[in-house]
Amino acid sequence: GENDLALGVARHLNLAITGGSDAHTKEEIGKYATFFKNKIADEEDLIREIKSGIMEARAFHPLEPRVLENE
What we know:
Elements: H1 2-12, E1 32-36, H2 43-52, E2 55-60, E3 65-67
Antiparallel strand pairs: 1-2, 2-3
């Protein structure tokens, strides 16, 4: 689907990969999130961490979360 295409393009362009909540169907609501290794206290922290790439985009399955970057 659209998310798989976006993930492939981001990998191809070596862009930071984040998980977001812009669901296209009701089944996708709350399914994707971004986990940061370091604490995010403000906008500067968020920008620094995204630029560093030290984060994981995750998709949640009811029984097992999976890291999108390692697929």
